Every structure is written in structure tokens, then in C-alpha cells.
Amino acid sequence: VMDLVHVRRVVVPPHPGLFSALGLLSSDLVYADSRSAYTLLGPDAAGSIDAVYRAMEEHLLSRIKAPRENVRVARSFDGRLFGQTWETPFVDVPEGPVTESSIEGMVENFHRVYQQRTGNRFDGIPVQGVTYRVQVVVPSGKVSYPAVEEKNGSSPRSQRRVTLRHLADTDVEAGEFEREDLRRGHEVEGPAVIREPLSTTLVPAGHTARVGTYGELVIEKQGDGGSSPTRKDGGSSPTRKEGA
């Protein structure tokens, strides 16, 4: 797959079978609301737009049990140049009450974002607000990975030899490693199989898996990165014979 999509490097995180679940647990809780009101952004619109944002924020904050000083409120709006039939979404809105100055900031933010996304800027055309959005973000605790023990100088030893079928025209012999036995700085040359309770990692022939600071496996094609990742003793086998 690396060759098909022209990827130089693949990173396999610790506990890859749980990675999506860990990401979900680490994600902030986001409560969102949006309301549409077609309004030309000018000084006279400040009061009505402020009322829309305040109503949404009060509604969202009433649903949250976390202390309000620990939450973050983010405002944005979808706008368009007057006369357009499509919107530029998620333009930032200045914090605080919506005032005449805030409206000026919204217009400037719109023109800046519009230019970034389309390459054009039309300061002379009025801006129309279409949809107003609020996100209330409740921070969650983040999962952290401890640094793994550094290798003691010895090369990792395979637990046994396995035969890989249907990956090439002929059967391929590979060393099998237990991931829990690998330490920071260890390198495993393919073809090899690295097993752990919830997943299995294949290191193809011509590739090397290196163990990073937190136990992540960095798989690269041999010869990339400026130097060949072969063993210092010049061997090319992924395992030592006595570990077979």
C-alpha cells in the first residue's frame, strides 16, 4: 500500500487497536447551535445579531454541567457578498458583545477569508450574514503516552519463524516479534511480523520498523532518509538464527 499511494513513512501508534477509542476519549466535548437570519452587516445590525448569539449561547450553556469558567465559546458565521447565491462558511466573529466595532471586524474577517479561499477580494460589495454559529467547547483530559525504555544495545530477537502466503508470488519466511519486547531505538527489518494482543503489524521486505520514543513503530522503506537502516554487523535478515 505504501508503494501504491507513494507514502515514504507509516507510523503505527501504541495500542493501535484502541487508537480510535483513545482519540474519542481525548476529544473535547463540543455543543453547537446555528440559526439563520439574512442580514446586511452594517452598524444597524449589531443589536439583532447580538441577540441571536446570546440566545444560542444561553441555550447551550444551560445544557452544560461543567463550570462555565472552564468552557470556551467560539462564534462564527456564514456570509456572502450581497447578491451571491452561495456562502463562505465559518468566518470568525470577534469575542464579546456584538457592537458596531464587532460588525466591522466581521466584515473584515469575511473579506480576508474570502480572499484566502478564492483569491479575490471585493471590499466595495456589502457583506450579508446568513447563518450564525456558536460552539461551546468543554475541555477533556488528554491521553498521554509514557516514554518506553531505551534498548540496551542488543538487537531484538524473533520468537519464531512464520510463513507469509499470498503476499508475493512465492511464500515468504519472516521473523515474528512481540511488540512488548521491543524498546526505543530497536529496528526490525522486513519481512517481519510484529504481534500484540489487539493487532498485528506487517513489515514488508525492503522496509524497516524503528521503535520511537513512546513505543510507536515508524516503518520506512530501506534507503530512504539518507542512510540504509541495516544492522551494524551488515546482516540483512530480520532475525538472528538463534532466535528462530
Q: Give the N-terminus to C-terminus distance in angstroms.
A: 28 Å
The helix-strand sequence is: EHEHEEHEEEEEEEE
Number of domains: 2
Helical residue percent band: 10-25%
> What Rg, in angstroms, do the CA atoms define?
28 Å
Counting helices, strands and paired strands, the structural category is alpha+beta
Strand order of the largest sheet: 1-12-11-8
- Poorly predicted ranges (pLDDT <50, ≥5 residues)? 226-244
How many beta-strand segments? 12
Indicate the mean pLDDT: 87
Largest sheet: 4 strands, antiparallel
Q: What is the overall shape? A: elongated
How many helices? The count is 3
Please indicate the percent range of residues in DSSP E strands (runs of 2 or more): 25-35%
Could you characterize the architecture of this molecule?
With 244 residues, the chain is an alpha+beta fold. It folds into two domains: 9-23 and 146-243, no CATH class; 28-138, Dna Ligase, domain 1, CATH 3.30.1490. The protein has three helices and twelve strands; from the N terminus they run βαβαββαββββββββ. The protein has helices spanning 19-26, 46-61, 100-118; strands at residues 9-12, 29-40, 72-81, 88-92, 127-138, 160-164, 172-178, 187-189, 192-196, 199-203, 207-211, 217-221. The longest helix is centred in the middle third of the chain and has 19 residues, at 100-118. It is elongated, with a radius of gyration of 28 Å. 20% of the residues are buried. The model is unreliable at 226-244 (pLDDT under 50).
